[in-house]
Amino acid sequence: MTKNLNLWVIPLLPLIGAAINGLLGRRFKNAMVSAVALLFTAASFGWAAWAVWSVWPGSGVALPHIEVLTTWITAGTFSAPFGFQLDQLSMIMVLVVTGVGFLIHIYSVGYMAHEGGYYRFFAFLNLFMFFMLTLVLANNYLLMFVGWEGVGLASYLLIGFFFLKDSAADAGKKAFIVNRIGDFAFLIGMFLLIQHFGTLTFAGDTGVFAQVAKLPQDTGWGWITITALCLMFGATGKSAQVPLYVWLPDAMEGPTPVSALIHAATMVTAGIYMIARSHAIFNLAPHALQIVAIIGCITAIFAATMGLAQTDIKRVLAYSTVSQLGYMFLACGVAAYSAGIFHLMTHAFFKALLFLGAGSVIHAVGGEQDMRRMGGLRKLIPVTFWVVTIATIAIAGIPPFAGFFSKDEILGAVFHSPYGGPVIWGIGVLTAGLTSFYMFRLWFMTFFGELKLGSVDLGEEAHTAHAPAQAAHGAASHSHGHADDKSHGHGGVHESPWVMLGPLVILAVLSFVGGWVGVPQFMGGHNEVEHFLAPVMQSAPAVAGEAVSDKDATTSHAGEATPENTREEWLLAGTSIAAALIGLLFAYLFYYKSPELPDRITSKMHGIYMMVLHKYYVDEGYGAIFVKPLLALSTVVLWRGVDQGVIDRLVNGAGTASQGVGNELRQMQSGNIRSYAAWVALGGAAIVAYMIWLGVTR
Amino acid sequence: MVPLSWYLILSGILFSLGVLGFLLKRNIITIFMSIELMLNAVNLSFVAFANYWNTHPVADKSIVPLSGQVFVFFVMVVAAAEAAVGLAIIISVFRTRETLNVDRVNLLKL
Questions:
Q1: How much is the pLDDT for A227?
Q2: B23 φ/ψ angles, rounded to the nearest 5 degrees
Q3: How close B7 gets to chain A, by Cα (Å)?
Q4: Residue A430: which H helix or E strand, with range?
Q5: What is the pTM (predicted TM-score) of this model?
Q6: Do A671 and B102 touch (CB under 8 A)?
Q7: Is the ipTM of this complex over 0.85?
Q8: Taking burial as the number of CB atoms within 10 A of a residue's CB, which of A196, A328, A428, A660 is the most buried?
């Protein structure tokens, strides 16, 4: 049974909102702008929910449900349709994107109320929704790429929203350029697919995945592995993995709702989604899977350690996002795609909540972002405190909150997979401990102790605490003044309005219960997420080694009901809980019980501390290795050499040459009629001579 | 019978004289006469060809023997019209500038 769900309406609605607000919003009142933005986002969410409901397994609609509107591009035998696809994977994505996106839209109404460019903000936000929905609903790589580039554009626009501030504009450019590097690899990967399959469509008998399924496994470094690696490199850009993660921490220059929506909940998960979508390709390329797993693992631990020393509340969350994305990558690398998507979903809830909560905190303290100036906010902003607490527990991986189940699922899969193993699992658990530590560090520093607004002299280290984003961009933002203003005009620390707290509460509930859809079997659950996604991920990971080949790789970590397995699973889960609790304990000791301890430790290990504080000098390293040589090359060779030396000289030479020729030819036009006549006579004579010559030679 | 080539050679000589006169003379009247000379040189070759094809009929239908004669009348009409207009111009030039030297009639030159 097929049904026409008009899937194209889902992305189109936010686009209409963006068009209305972008073109006419300047004349609208703020209330009108938010009404338009919210209406179209809500409609999109509603339509998506209805569509998902209509095709829900058991409704009799065949999945994947594909609706091709028209042929988009035809070139020779290659043709790309303009079509949308709804299957279990895109169902989750589309609901997360529209649902969380809608909540963040509501939140933004309160958060951005006093900012300039209100209509512009919502237009961009809606535009982002349009592209993100195109990305997740596309039924072929090319259309997906449109969304992929589009979210990059929206991200650029929103990071640089406070464009009068240099650091924000630079961060936007950095994000865009770093993403372009990944996109280039993605393009190469698509070209390889076109070359070998002649199509980019996902499903169907002639689709990429059906054709891939017929191929033998590529155990060497054949073109499948190369294709997979290209796709993976594209994903590292979008999903902020090593080596292209550098843009994400800087992206915190954008307004906080943007960080929540784009750089935590949705856009950065596009890479994970893409890999999960391409799982058929990755499953054939064990080397590529191994590399994905290693990159995810490195990113997770690397970003977690960088998060330890950050003092800007949003930067801590940024590094935590990179680290959690590393987990998802790791899950994909061990072919546990559904675990990755599960973590993607729970992460979307609690990380959006954390960012919005942080935004609420920043709002409360009048634009301050440095945690060293915060403290004791627990009593002052109780609702924010409680929702952030829930999110912190969720991300730390303490049951029964959402983060625990998804993280445990990933770690369990890592432990059993031939691409993972105990070492990578150990790093994963260590990362979980670190995550717990820095998240509770944030929690203690922000909500406990005493409020130190403006009273702490941060000395020369103040440069790491980025000046409040809103301060520099004009007088329009009174409520977000710099801490030095002490925000007296705003009545001191205050709880955010309910338009901001409402979404927080909903997200808090989701962060709490969101994990329960994936309770593993050994705990008495049914792991619905995995079963739900199973039809999409049905091509079982072809395992190269023998280690797991006797077990069914897809179900081994979900735990068959044997007592041995169950005990092992409990042990693994227990370890990660223990790691989380240890992290909590250390954070308690360092930042609550004896706050002078961290200083003593950092002064002892000054070298390491400085290295972590400066993010391992990665930005500086990239600057020295890539940016400076590129600039030098561009200046000397491309600018002075090619541009000025060759192109300019050619252009100027053409000008000079025609001037010279014209100068000579000018002599013919003497104005003397008889000389003109002489020329005419000469021409006639020449023609006659030519004709005589023709007659003679014939 | 005079061969065709003689007429053509005479026509060529007359035409060349016309060209040379046009180029070398400075008096507008003389130049005008040179133009007439060229036109009539051409007329001569027209009638010569017409006569030739009339006396040497060929199967080629595209050659109509008397068309040359007809063309000569066209040329004469044009030449007469031109003479009328040209002489009017010359008279008016002479009235304003009191010279017939073309080198001095150069107001349009930059």
A1: 92
A2: -75, -35
A3: 18
A4: helix A421-447
A5: 0.77
A6: no
A7: no
A8: A328
